[in-house]
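Can you give me the bound-state structure? Components:
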Amino acid sequence: MGKKLLIHNDNVPGIATLEVYRQNGGYASVEKALKTMTPADVVEEVKKSGLRGRGGAGFPTGMKWSFLAKPEGVERYLVCNADESEPGTFKDRYLMEKIPHALIEGMITSSYALGAKTSYIYIRGEYFYVARIVEKAIDEAYAAGLLGKNILGTNFSHDCYVQVGAGAYICGEETALLESLEGKRGNPRIKPPFPAIAGLYGCPTVVNNVETIAAVCPIVMMGGDEYAKIGIGRSTGTKLISASGHINKPGVYEIELGLPVEEFIYSEEYCGGIINGRKLKAVVAGGSSVPILPAELILKNDKGEARLMSYESLSEGGFATGTMLGSGGFIVYDETTSIVKNLYTFARFYHHESCGQCSPCREGTGWMEKILHRIVEGQGKPSDVDLLWDIQRKIEGNTICPLGDAAAWPVASAIRHFRHEFEEYINHPERIKDVKHYYSVHQLAGA
Amino acid sequence: MSNEIKFNEETLALVHKMIKRYPEGKHKSALLPILHIAQAEFGGWLSPETMDYVASILNIKPIEVYEVASFYSMYNLKPVGKCLLEVCRTSSCWTRGAEDVVRHLEKKLGIKEGETTADGMFTIKTVECLGSCGSAPMLQCGASYHENLTMEKVDNLLEEYRAIGKQRSYTDMDYKNTL
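Here's the bound-state model for the whole set.
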């Protein structure tokens, strides 16, 4: 059993309340940081921990924090990115719903480190009921003197607010999120300047994912060096993985980074194997944006070594044979899955979510959806696969924000590893009606 | 629901509380949350009159409200049924039968995806990933997530919503957490 630092208490009755959370050691990092450490000490521990952004990009958190500009007399902000909307990802929802105080604790400790007097938690609008849970936790924290003026009798004062979004995947991109928080359309900004210099209201701002902020608490408590001993290589610590698709036990699992992928999929402790004992066909390991890999490449890399759940191991082999850890949105597909139809759901998603600012993404995502739709409907042309390949290449790297890349990679990887399936659809449209696109709900109920 | 587009005092107090969350002069930040409230209060959608009213409260130009309302998928720019059934259609839900759920709803309600029943009770909409991948398939109605759906569950849900929907008022935000 791997170490758990974030959701080890998720089954304690009443853990969502301040009282029970504190009885289980909650808010100790606030006590420790505010009373015995300087802000610079906290930043230093986070740097030593090797913690990397858990939202998907994997950028070192301590480094991101150290970029924060600190001009005299200018407000600084911490903004929590709780706009979890990468398909296949639901870990932040789980954390906020089950243990909301873990996030509030992290917000206070992190804000102290950054010198932020105000912080915002931007939660996707669809998680309305989660926002209520978090707001309730904030109210409790205020009442207990953990938020507001002179926290725990120290000189540090801090206000924390929730802001709800209104349905836009793009607002998970940090500059789009800031635009949205300012009451505007979620159009990503051109960088530089980065938020660390000019973020919310033009002030220096750090934007961190929910899980990243929650991880600051155990880091402060155990020290950065101890945290860095967990995990493997530069993938330190634990990671929440959202497991979904054709597995026996979908859900959120906290793993120690470095766990073999095969163990994660098949052991009873985690996914519990493929539903109905069917064969594994493919996996999207880090949310819809990362390349899909066929079974043989997700279990072992191109050198035949066991693939591990870590930033480095999953990306071993580049995009030719590898993928990315991303947000940890782990979607498993069994042997009956139609890769083409699945890709169509992704292409439709990205077209729907493109903000429309950059023409390669705005137009390209629409073209890809349209072409995939006709292929799925049995109207595909022999030139369509090459056309899809061409379009995705022209989107990648040609947009302001990474949504363009995110739309291109699933298409590229599906064609790279499953080209024969596209050709089957195009050359034998008569067979499509016999293809099993998905499990019917009736079958699942009978399983 | 009154026809006049104006928040009552209680709602107005909530709106002003939200505006106070942001620094002086940055009140536009409250636009998204206020639009959610306005949509719930004034019939489940944002009419031009509603948007103009929100603009007047925040002292911003109407276009600043229109461009935001039209950007985000949760704002309805046309009337919808009392119960907006939003079925997730993205990969994880799709692998576990989201399409079956949509077809079943269409059959039961006698309408197509995107349409509203004649009695104004239900609208079927397909939406992108709602972060419920581990409990797929799912649908959202109001603030409630309905997960691990089976056809039987969907049938029961429709009955429950039909009963509640008859007395439903959009102003009752708490209603949304009762199912």
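A couple of observations. The CA atoms of residues 23 and 65 of chain B lie 20 Å apart. Chain B is about 40% helix and 10% strand.
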